[in-house]
Design goal:
It is a single chain. With about 325 residues, the protein is of the alpha/beta class. The protein has 2 domains: about 15-205, inorganic pyrophosphatase (n-terminal core), CATH 3.90.1640; about 215-335, Roll (Diaminopimelate Epimerase, Chain A, domain 1). It is built from 11 helices and 12 strands. It has helices spanning about 1-5, 15-25, 40-55, 145-155, 160-175, 185-195, 200-210, 215-225, 240-245, 295-300, 315-335; strands spanning about 30-35, 60, 80, 95, 115-120, 135, 225-230, 235-240, 270-275, 280-285, 305, 310-315. Strands 3-2-1-4-5-6 form a 6-stranded parallel β-sheet, covered by helices on one side. Strands 7-8-9-10-12-11 form a 6-stranded mixed β-sheet. Helix 9 links the parallel strand 8 and strand 9 (about 270-275). Helix 3 (about 40-55) packs antiparallel against helix 5, helix 4 packs antiparallel against helix 5 (about 160-175) and helix 5 packs across helix 7 (about 200-210). The longest helix is centred in the C-terminal third of the chain and has 19 residues, at about 315-335. Bound molecules: guanosine-5'-monophosphate (5GP) and manganese (II) ion. Guanosine-5'-monophosphate binds near residues 34, 302, 305 and 312.
């Protein structure tokens, strides 16, 4: 553990100590993360809950947006509430994970009362440091990795569900140990977790190889929608409500399919467009080069990591496509 901490100046021991003090001093804790939660945010929330409950704290977990289908097998996931109209809790501490700003928690932000202490733990560049204590490390593979380091400092031993959930956080946020976030620390922690008994084959099968037949067929249609632009450097995929309605499915059944946008050799930027409504389009943007797609997302009010970012545009699908493709073109032209 010591060697893990030494390599991470951004994980300051003082800040970790302040977070642990806040955890120990709390009684009722709200744990939340960004809207449209993913594997890292869901699993990190569940681990923080198990740790706090082991200290005898009362915890409530709330997220804005459905749990994606591929994470519904995760142990404890039924404890994450998503219907904010049913919120009835009076926390003395709020833990916000993986959210660049408080707004990123969506509806949950509106129930956080004034004056409640906020702990902000994130690995996104550009975090607005909205917490009373802020731990932000943009070099961490995942918030799961950060949680592992923080709780290890308190002597917490990861085994069973907590080991598996940190493993899933790292597995999914590194794209199965593929993205540049696959750091030595991420691998070392994954190795520790495997040693403590995580069944890597079962977990990977559950996350990535447990689709229903309609899901696979829908993905086939999304792949058919591929448009290649900018001399083969950009691939755009589209997932529409019309397609989902036809198959009786929802956007949360397709978390992660943006990855198909980077499958073609020579494509540098991949985008998945989703028509959330007639006037609102979500774009998930990925890159495999040094091209910083978070910068592109930020231009339109979004954000993320250099190789994986997202933005919700107040624009119909066609207009959103035009805007994003143009912005990618300008960035590529500038970098050439
Ligand atoms: P995704 O495209 O899978 O939704 O998100 C990719 C990355 O970008 C994640 O790290 C996610 O947190 C971030 N991201 C997605 N949408 C937004 C957004 O609207 N604002 C910000 N700040 N980050 C986003
Ligand atoms: Mn993450």
């Amino acid at each position: 553990m010591r060697s893990l901490m030494k390599s991470r100046k951004k994980m300051s021991r003082t800040t970790i100590a302040r977070i642990l003090d806040a955890f120990h001093d709390s009684s009722r804790v709200l744990i939340t993360s960004h809207k449209e939660p993913d594997g890292d945010s869901i699993c990190s929330q569940l681990v923080v809950r198990e740790y706090l409950e082991s200290l005898g704290k009362e915890c409530v977990l709330f997220n804005h947006g459905d749990i994606p289908a591929r994470y519904r097998f995760v142990t404890g996931v039924e404890n994450i509430h998503t219907d904010i109209s049913a919120y009835d809790f009076n926390p003395d501490l709020v833990v916000v994970l993986e959210s660049t700003s408080l707004d990123r928690t969506g509806d949950v932000a509106s129930v956080i009362g004034d004056g409640v202490r906020i702990i902000n733990i994130d690995h996104h560049e550009g975090n607005t440091l909205y917490g009373d204590v802020n731990l932000v490390d943009d070099r961490a593979s995942s918030v799961g990795e950060m949680i592992y380091k923080i709780l290890s400092e308190d002597g917490f031993v990861f085994k069973g569900t907590t080991a598996e959930n940190i493993y899933i956080a790292i597995l999914t946020d590194t794209g199965r140990f593929h993205f540049s976030s696959t750091t030595p620390d991420a691998m070392r922690i994954a190795a520790d977790l495997i040693e403590s008994g995580v069944d890597t084959r079962r977990v990977t099968d559950q996350v990535y190889f447990s689709m229903s037949e309609p899901q696979l067929r829908t993905i086939g249609e999304v792949i058919q929608s591929a448009e290649v632009h900018l001399d083969g450097r950009l691939c755009a995929l589209t997932l529409t409500r019309a397609l989902l309605d036809k198959r009786g499915m929802s956007f949360s059944d397709f978390e992660g399919i943006v990855d198909y946008s980077l499958q073609i050799n020579g494509v540098e930027v991949g985008v998945l467009f989703k028509d959330i409504s007639d006037d609102v389009t979500k774009a998930s943007i990925r890159s495999r080069s040094n091209l910083d797609v978070a910068e592109i997302a930020r231009k339109f009010g979004g954000g993320g990591h250099p190789n994986a970012a997202g933005v919700t545009l107040e624009a119909p699908l066609d207009e959103a496509k035009r805007l994003i493709i143009q912005a990618v073109k300008e960035t590529l032209d500038r970098n050439d």
